[in-house]
Every structure is written in structure tokens, then in C-alpha cells.
């Protein structure tokens, strides 16, 4: 799947991402999806051919089509065998892909579904949070990553179709999912369980880096944040943004909304729905309710264009 202009879409392009495995945990799912697609197409062609025979075929052929033998074979035996085989295939696949606890040295990330965005916490071996982020996950290529999925409110479903099957996020419970990207790139994802309001606008991006770039990314996130003493920081405080958002190294430590410590380096805004740039930052702050109706951030229409620009400059500086 392509992430074009910051907009993640799991629907565009060919092949669709569920048929285009980008790693070992998506491969068996893609194989099953191809089998369903091709098998379904063959069944459709056979049914249409039978319909043509029934309408316009020679009387002898039509008699055979309507005979007991054809009905028992095509209407009972074939679907019975095929559906049973698919059931067994699906159950075994579910079993095979069931992730258990972390493997030695494996990267662990906790992702929490929120109405309508994703809280991301990179964990150390002891399960302590070392990096906080939102709506975007950075991984090294060729390595499996264990995701610990839960929810803060209602049931969401985490789905990066290129990298793994989908997994529900259920309040009060942790579901494990392994992903692995074999090629560098950005893979789009989408909440796959209706969770009210702007459910359809709850996107996600996985950015897979070559090992060296990933190490650099990780180091930059772990380094103590640079002091942020620009005019934007003061406006951020006085406008009340800090009640909901955290910016590491500042007094802003709100937890209701996404962590903004590195918002300037994110691909998207509003959980995968807009490219992240100056214009969209200003538009989002002023009128996020038009861009993502029902989301939990109020509009800040009282800010002047100059103030919006000041805040956007500040957001852009948070790399
Ligand atoms: Cu979250 Cu649908």
C-alpha cells in the first residue's frame, strides 16, 4: 500500500495490500486471500456458465443440469468439502499466527486504541516505556516486532494489511500481534472495527527503516529534547493545549490527546488523514472538527492567523 501525500489508504492501488504481503506474518494471510479471490472467481464463472446453459442450452444439457446428480455434486458435496477445507485452513492459520510472549531481544511496542487515534509506547525488555509517540510506528526491516495491543475506551481493531492480519484491541485485555516488514517503506493501516464517530478516519502508518537509519531514529528519540523556548511554546501554554498534550522537556504533560514531543517529524496529522505540513497544522488547530468531525479536539477558531502560524512553527520545530 502506498501512503500518498500523507494520506494512508488501505483501499487504493493494485494489488490491494491484503494480497501484497510485505513480511512473513502477512504471507499466509495473503495466500488465503488469493485462494479466496481466485476460488471465488472460478465459482462465479461456473455459476454464470450454468445459468447460460439453463437459459439457452440444448434440452439434453439442461436436463442434466437440473438432475439429482448435478444438484448433489454442485449444491451439496462441493460446497460442503470446500467450506470445511477453508474452515480448517483458517483455524490452523489462526493458530499458527497466534503470537506468544516476547522472544529474546525482540522489540516490543504497546499500542493503545483511543477514540480516534493510536497511543504508541516503545518498551524496554522490562516492559517500561522508553519512547512515546502517536499514530505512527517505526520499525527496523527484517526483524519481528511484538505489538501489545489494548484499548482505552471501546473495541478498535489494529490492521496493517501488508504486515499482518488484523487484531482486535479490547479494553482491559492485551492482545499480542507480530509484524515484520522485509522492505523499507511506509505501510498504511486502518482501524478495522467500528468504534463510533470518525472510525473511518482512524489511520496509522508503519515506517520500516534499514537498520542504520533505524538506529539513528531511535537515538534521536532517546536523546534529551532540545530546550523549546520559542514564542510558540508560550502560546501553546496560554491557549490551554498542554491540558491534553505532552511535549517532553516542557511543562506540557496532558495525557488525553496524542503526545506531541516529535509531532514535527510525523508523516500525517489527525491519525493518518492529512499530510503533515504548515497549512494542515494551522487548519487542524483552527478547525479540526471540519476535517475530522466528532474528534475530541475542540476548534481553536479564536486564534488569529498569526497565532496559528506561530503555533504551527512551534509544532514543526518538534522533530
Ligand atoms: Cu477505532 Cu474503529
Mind telling me the C-alpha Rg?
25 Å
> Mean of residue pLDDT?
91
How would a crystallographer describe the biggest sheet?
Answer: 5 strands, mixed
Under CATH, the topology of the largest domain is which?
Immunoglobulin-like
Percent in helix: 25-40%
Got a strand count?
14
Strand order of the largest sheet: 5-4-3-7-10
Unreliable stretches (pLDDT < 50, length at least 5) are 1-8
The structural domain count equals 3
Bound molecules: dinuclear copper ion
- Termini gap: 25 Å
Sheet-strand content, in percent, reads: 15-25%
Query: Please, how many helices?
Result: 7
The CATH architecture classification of the largest domain is Sandwich
CATH class of the largest domain: Mainly Beta
Can you say what the CATH homologous superfamily of the largest domain is? Cupredoxins -  blue copper proteins
- Please trace the helix and strand order, writing H or E for each element: EEHHHEEEEEEEEEEHHEEHH
Structural class category? alpha+beta
Shape: elongated
Word description of this protein:
The protein is of the alpha+beta class and 319 residues long. The protein has three domains: 26-96; 107-222, Immunoglobulin-like; 231-317, Immunoglobulin-like. The chain has helices spanning 27-56, 59-65, 68-96, 211-222, 231-238, 278-291, 305-317, and strands at residues 3-4, 7-8, 107-114, 117-123, 129-134, 136-140, 145-151, 156-159, 167-169, 175-179, 185-191, 203-209, 268-269, 274-275. It has a five-stranded mixed beta sheet, with no helix packed on it. It has a five-stranded mixed beta sheet with strand order 6-12-11-8-9. Strands 1-2 form a two-stranded antiparallel sheet. Helix 5 (231-238) crosses helix 7 (305-317) and helix 6 crosses helix 7 (305-317). The chain is elongated and about 85 Å long. The chain binds dinuclear copper ion. The site of dinuclear copper ion has 9 residues, from loops. Residues 113, 116, 156, 191, 193-195, 199, 202 line the site of dinuclear copper ion. It is a multi-pass membrane protein.
Amino acid at each position: 500500500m502506498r501512503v500518498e501525500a500523507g494520506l494512508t489508504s488501505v483501499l487504493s492501488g493494485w494489488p490491494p495490500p491484503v494480497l501484497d504481503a510485505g513480511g512473513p506474518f502477512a504471507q499466509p494471510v495473503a495466500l488465503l486471500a488469493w485462494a479466496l479471490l481466485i476460488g471465488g472467481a472460478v465459482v462465479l464463472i461456473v455459476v454464470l456458465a450454468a445459468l447460460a446453459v439453463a437459459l439457452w442450452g440444448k434440452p439434453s444439457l439442461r436436463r442434466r443440469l437440473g438432475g439429482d446428480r448435478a444438484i448433489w455434486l454442485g449444491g451439496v458435496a462441493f460446497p460442503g468439502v470446500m467450506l470445511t477445507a477453508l474452515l480448517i485452513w483458517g483455524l490452523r492459520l489462526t493458530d499458527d499466527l497466534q503470537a506468544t510472549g516476547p522472544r529474546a531481544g525482540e522489540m516490543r511496542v504497546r499500542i493503545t486504541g483511543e477514540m480516534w487515534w493510536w497511543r504508541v509506547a516503545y518498551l524496554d525488555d522490562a516492559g517500561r516505556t522508553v519512547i512515546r509517540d502517536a499514530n505512527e510506528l517505526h520499525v527496523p526491516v527484517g526483524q519481528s516486532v511484538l505489538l501489545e495491543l489494548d484499548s482505552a475506551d471501546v473495541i478498535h481493531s489494529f490492521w496493517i494489511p501488508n504486515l499482518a492480519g488484523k487484531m482486535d484491541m479490547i479494553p482491559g485485555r492485551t492482545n499480542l500481534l507480530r509484524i515484520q516488514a522485509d522492505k523499507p517503506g511506509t505501510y498504511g493501516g486502518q482501524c478495522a472495527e467500528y468504534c463510533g464517530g470518525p472510525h473511518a478516519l482512524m489511520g496509522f502508518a508503519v515506517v520500516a527503516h534499514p537498520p542504520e537509519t533505524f538506529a539513528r531514529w531511535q537515538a534521536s528519540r532517546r536523546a534529551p529534547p532540545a530546550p523549546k523556548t520559542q514564542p510558540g511554546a508560550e502560546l501553546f501554554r496560554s491557549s490551554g493545549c498542554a491540558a491534553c498534550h505532552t511535549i517532553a522537556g516542557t511543562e506540557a504533560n496532558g495525557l488525553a490527546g496524542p503526545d506531541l514531543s516529535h509531532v514535527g517529524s510525523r508523516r500525517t496529522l489527525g491519525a493518518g488523514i492529512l499530510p503533515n505540513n504548515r497549512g494542515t497544522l494551522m487548519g487542524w488547530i483552527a478547525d479540526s472538527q471540519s476535517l475530522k468531525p466528532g474528534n475530541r479536539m475542540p476548534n481553536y477558531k479564536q486564534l488569529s492567523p498569526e497565532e496559528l502560524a506561530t503555533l504551527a512553527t512551534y509544532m514543526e520545530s518538534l522533530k
